[in-house]
Amino acid sequence: MKKNLLTASIISVLFFFTACSSGPKRQMSITTIQDSCKHSIESANACILNGNYQQAEEILARARTQALSIDNYDLQLSVSLAHVSLYLSYNPPEIEKARLYVENAYELVPSTTKRKESELLCAMGEARILIAENAVQENFKTIIDKIDDAKKVFKDSPYNHAQCDSILGDVYRLAGRYKEADKIYNEAAKLFTDQRYLSEIGITWYKIAQNQSQSGNQKGALEALNTAIHYDRLAENSMALGADYYIKAVILLKGKPTEANRAEAKKALLHSAEIYTAANLEELASKSLELFLTIE
User: Fold this and answer.
1) Dihedral of the CA atoms 174, 176, 181, 183 (nearest 10)?
2) Per-residue pLDDT tens for 161-201?
3) Pair 63, 79: CB distance under 8 Å
4) Cα separation of 250 and 212, whole Å?
5) For 27, which DSSP code?
6) Could you say which of 70, 138, 238, 296 has the lowest number of CB atoms within 10 Å?
7) What is the Cα gyration radius of the chain?
8) Average of pLDDT values for 74-98?
9) Which tens digit of pLDDT belongs to each residue from 216-231?
10) Using 50, 70 and 90 to split pLDDT, how confident is the model at 50?
11) 97-136 as b/e, with b when 16 or more CB fall inside 10 Å?
């Protein structure tokens, strides 16, 4: 009897320790809402790139509610900066709304987990506003210094590093320093390509085309634009494709266009309008047709 009791006791002790060691470890954090919020922000950014601004607005409203509900300041900052991108994407840009969200983002910085990075992300948003306002000349050194600082901090974050390059390219282009702009735009394009950010690749090549055109290199501009079209097709980015063909016409009509250039420009504008119409972007389609009607 005693032997049986002893055996039972040993088995009980072994079972207790086995159960303790093999039991599932409890999570020290739950990220269900956080993950959903991050997904919402990514979806909103995709909508912005594709010109679905109303949908982006709705998604960001939901993301803000999610971020607030879990008291996550990093996510609240991301939502505010996504709003900056949204309002700067309008044509014309809604500068004052974008500025309000940058101010809100700066207010959130002290409560975020990485204050330095958060502050620089806000500075990038602020730089985009100055670019949209065409206020680069009077703020040139300030923007360059701040974004160069951001590049150093984001050296291990390819996406943010490439965004810094894209901003610097814009600044150099608007300052008329086309050679420097081309170099840094191409660096951004390479980073985006290496990381397979399709929409950003197309947008960057669109900027390269703009820069080449402004520097007087029509051939280089059209070649860059063909690259932009290639990637925008891969990204199924209707808004960007419509813009590609519109700017193609603008480039062809620059200076003293030949008859062949005018004919090609007309073709590009009609195609631009077709794409915009198919994507339910009627206002942009109208602008393409308006330019078409001015060509003799």
Assistant:
1) 180
2) 999 999 999 999 999 999 999 999 999 999 999 999 999 99
3) yes
4) 13
5) P
6) 296
7) 26
8) 97
9) 999 999 999 999 999 9
10) confident
11) ebbebbebbbebbeebeeeebbbbbbbbbbbbbbbbeeeb
CB 63 within 8 A of CB 107: no
Residue 3's pLDDT band (cuts 50, 70, 90): low
Task: Please say whether the dihedral angle defined by the alpha carbons of residues 275, 280, 285 and 287, taken in this order, is positive or negative.
Answer: negative
Q: Is 22 exposed, middle or buried (0-12, 13-18, 19+ CB in 10 A)?
A: exposed
Residue 216: partners with Cβ closer than 8 Å, 6 or more residues away: none
CB 226, CB 235: distance < 8 Å: no
Q: What is the mean pLDDT of residues 258-282?
A: 97
For the chain, give the percent of residues with pLDDT over 90.
88
- CA separation, residue 240 to residues 149, 217, 243 (Å): 30, 22, 5
Distance of CA 14 to the CA centre of its chain: 57
Nearest to 142 by CA among 166, 123, 161: 123
Contact (Cβ atoms closer than 8 angstroms) between residue 241 and residue 233? yes
The encoded tokens of residue 243 equal 């813009």
